[in-house]
């Protein structure tokens, strides 16, 4: 079994107590571009989401885990999405909410742990990540973890009056 704990972070399931953290993160306009959000979420909607967060990845095709410091402070989220057990692949994404928690190694360790879980426990063959062109931190992070650029989706995201390319990265477990 893969441990979901690293040296500086641990990953855990969403809990009802995460409502305030989730509310702050999902309603932070500075991260909407990467999360695909275009409107705020109410506490009621997020409460319904948390009520269903226990559902199995094979059922809902997504796994969302909270990134916590060793003293259990929630600092971000990491996801497997578009889970496809037949073709043994999934998308992977990460968000660290506060600027002060970025560039601390938390993102690297979170993705390493989730990749290991996806490849060993879920027996996936490949993971992919969609990264906006110009998001240098994410580009560096995913390249460092062995993801390879496999394509460009031209003018894929429209935000703040202009189109941006989205880059497709892939990691194959050989």
TrEMBL record:
Please list the residue ranges annotated as the N-acetyltransferase domain: 9-168
Instruction: Output the superkingdom of the source species.
Output: Bacteria
Entry-linked InterPro entries = Acyl_CoA_acyltransferase (IPR016181), GNAT_dom (IPR000182)
A Pfam family reported for this protein in Swiss-Prot or TrEMBL? Acetyltransf_3
Give the matching PANTHER family.
GNAT-FAMILY ACETYLTRANSFERASE, SPERMIDINE N(1)-ACETYLTRANSFERASE
**Can you name this protein?**
GNAT family N-acetyltransferase
Question: What's the source species for this entry?
Answer: Maribacter cobaltidurans
């Amino acid at each position: 079994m893969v441990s979901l704990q690293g040296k500086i972070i641990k990953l855990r399931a969403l809990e009802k107590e995460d409502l305030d953290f989730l509310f702050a993160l999902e309603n932070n306009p500075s991260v909407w571009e990467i999360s695909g959000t275009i409107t705020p979420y109410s506490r009621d909607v997020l409460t319904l989401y948390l009520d269903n967060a226990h559902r199995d990845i094979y059922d809902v095709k997504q796994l969302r885990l909270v990134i916590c410091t060793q003293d259990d402070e929630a600092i971000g989220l990491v996801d497997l999405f578009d889970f496809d057990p037949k073709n043994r692949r999934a998308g992977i994404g990460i968000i660290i909410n506060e600027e002060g928690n970025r560039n601390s190694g938390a993102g690297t360790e979170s993705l390493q742990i989730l990749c290991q879980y996806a490849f060993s426990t879920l027996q996936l063959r490949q993971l992919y990540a969609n990264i906006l062109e110009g998001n240098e931190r994410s580009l560096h992070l995913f390249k460092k973890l062995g993801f390879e650029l496999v394509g460009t989706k031209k003018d894929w995201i429209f935000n703040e009056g202009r189109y941006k390319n989205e880059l497709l990265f892939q990691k194959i477990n050989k």
